Amino acid sequence: MDNMITRRRFVGMSAATGAAILTGGKIAGSTVRAGLALISPGAATDPAFKIGGDLEVNRLGFGAMRITGEGIWGWPPDRANALKVLKRAVELGVNLIDTADAYGPETSELLIAEALHPYPKGLIIATKGGLTRPGPGNWVPNGHADYLKGCVDKSLKRLRLDRIDLYQLHTVDPKVPMEESLGALKEMQSAGKIRHVGLSNVSPEQIARARKVLPIVSVQNRYNLGDRKSEKAIDYCEKENLGFLPWFPVGGGRGVKSAALDAVSKAHGVTVYQVALAWLLQRSPVMLPIPGTSNIQHLEDNVAAAKLKLTPEEWKTLAG
To answer: In the prediction, which pLDDT does 206 show?
Structure first.
């Protein structure tokens, strides 16, 4: 790609070839591997990853939290637009959509089913349970076994699925032993209602503890250029070949800002958000960013980031 290219041309090129880019076409001589060894940060090039060793996904996914109403509460102001965003994501080659019963609550899952069911072959819907929503902006953990088993059944119904490919414990409830929460998910997995189990908002120590209860295939923690508290969790995931889904991959409402980020985005003629996503994709081969948006143009920008390749020098400069 030319060093200087207009944002409009870059997005147009990438949107037009987005499905090919995201569906496993080789990038910089990369190949999809079943197992991964630790590599130098910034050198990841594989366009796809196999969650649990059998669910192959394109590494740039879509987070469906923002398609709900303000405060992640209730229905979106423009329901038709939310449905269009979901459909457009799949058209662009996205085949990993992350949601949760707490988004809305329930709204996000219902919109996904309304927009995409019957689901196209290869589309992976990942959802979560274990957080309740007393009101807008409020998130309260509930890791009790009976509650979680009910969450799984209700998500199955809302998503119109017989089995959830990836079900994640949304957070560890400090009032409930992790083993009790995960034991409930193990029971639902044994019943054929869950294919794989993941974790969210956890430390490496908690991941190791969870794996003594049942196989864990993924971790979802907050991580972006400006918030790298989960570095150790990423290294653990890469060593053990677990998918890592960074939430708020471009910083959430606050975004990501730095002089280096501005300089690199200007050099490539793209947005700072596209550079931030490209940086994540090159950070580790197990990194599965799930940027969310309710805007189709922003969605296309995000997908275009899968085509952007930073030089080793640029990546290191951004890493600080």
So the answer is: 98
Active site residue 167: no
Distance between CA 124 and CA 294 in Å, rounded?
A: 20
> Which phi and psi angles does 115 have, rounded to 5°?
-80, -35
Yes or no: say if 264 and 318 are a contact pair by the CB < 8 Å rule. Answer: yes
CB atoms within 10 A of CB 138: 11
C-beta separation of 110 from 158 below 8 A: yes
Reference 283, options 299, 267, 305; nearest CA is 305
Q: What does the radius of gyration of the chain's CA atoms come to, in whole angstroms?
A: 19
pLDDT of residue 39: 63
Q: What are phi and psi of 27, to 5 degrees?
A: -125, 125
Side-chain half-sphere exposure of 131, counting CA atoms within 13 A: 25
pLDDT of residue 50 exceeding 50, the answer is yes
Question: Smallest Cα–Cα separation from 224: which of 168, 305, 140?
Answer: 305
Q: What CATH fold (topology level) applies to the domain 7-319?
A: TIM Barrel (3.20.20)
- Is residue 177 scored above 50 in pLDDT? yes
**pLDDT category of residue 154 using cuts at 50, 70 and 90:** very high
Provide the b/e sequence for 245-255 (b: ≥16 CB within 10 Å): bbbbbbbbeee
The confidence score (pLDDT) of residue 7 equals: 39
Q: Is 112 helix (H, G, I), strand (E, B) or coil?
A: helix
Sequence-ordered list of residues with C-beta below 8 angstroms from that of 213, at least 6 positions apart, any chain: 178, 179, 182, 183, 186
Cα–Cα distance, 190 to 70 (Å, whole number): 37
Joined together, the tokens standing for residue 161 give 């699925």
pLDDT band at 44 (very low <50, low <70, confident <90, very high): confident
The one catalytic residue among 103, 167, 223, 273: 103
CB 271 within 8 A of CB 301: yes
Q: Which two tokens stand for residue 208?
A: 């190791």
The secondary structure of residue 211, as a DSSP letter, is T
